[in-house]
Design brief:
alpha/beta, single chain, six-stranded parallel beta sheet, Rossmann fold
Length: 159
C-alpha cells in the first residue's frame, strides 16, 4: 500500500509569524514555506496528503481559509486539528483519532514536521514513520530521516 503523508502546518507547510495573533486566516500576511506548493502539487498526485496540526486558534474551516490564501487547500484530503480532535500531538489519542478516521494501519503513515518532540518523537512512539523538516543545525542529536527542503520528499519517494 502507498504511504499516506501527514504534514504539520506551522513552519512545515505555512510560515509562522510570531508577531501575528489569532487564527492564521486573519493574519495580515500568510506565506507558504519554500517549495511547499511544488512539493504538494507532485506528491498529492501520487498519494494522499493530510494536515495534522496542534493549532489551537483555528478550526478546520479556518485552517482551510488560511491555506486558500496561498492556494494550498486543494492538496489536502482532510485536516486534523486540535479543535476537531480534542487532543494534541504527541499524544497517542491524537494519532489514534487520525488512524480511526482514515481506516489505515499506522505502518502506512508518514508524519512530516519541524518539531522534534510533538511531530517526530510523538509519531515514532506510536509506531508511525517520520521525516524531520529542519536543517542539521536544529536538533543535532537527531539521527533519523531528515530533510531541509520540501522538494526532497519528491526525490525520496521518486515522485
Amino acid at each position: 500500500m502507498k504511504k499516506i503523508f501527514l504534514f504539520d502546518w506551522g513552519d512545515t507547510i505555512m510560515k509562522n509569524f510570531p508577531n501575528e495573533i489569532g487564527g492564521m486566516h486573519t493574519w495580515h500576511r500568510v506565506e507558504a514555506m519554500p517549495n511547499a506548493e511544488k512539493m504538494l502539487r507532485k506528491l498529492s498526485q501520487q498519494t494522499d496528503c493530510y494536515l495534522a496540526t496542534n493549532a489551537k486558534d483555528s478550526d478546520k474551516e479556518e485552517i482551510i481559509k488560511a491555506l486558500q490564501r496561498d492556494n494550498l487547500h486543494k492538496y489536502f484530503k482532510d485536516i486534523f486539528c486540535y479543535r476537531e480532535i480534542g487532543y494534541s500531538k504527541p499524544s497517542k489519542e491524537y494519532f489514534d483519532s487520525i488512524l480511526d478516521k482514515l481506516k489505515v494501519k499506522k505502518e502506512n503513515l508518514i508524519m512530516v514536521g519541524d518539531n522534534l518532540e510533538t511531530d517526530i518523537n510523538g509519531a515514532q512512539r506510536f509506531g508511525i514513520d517520520t521525516i524531520l523538516y529542519a536543517s542539521k543545525d536544529y536538533y543535532p542529536e537527531y539521527h533519523g530521516m531528515r530533510i531541509d527542503n520540501l522538494l526532497e520528499l519528491n526525490i525520496l519517494f521518486n515522485i
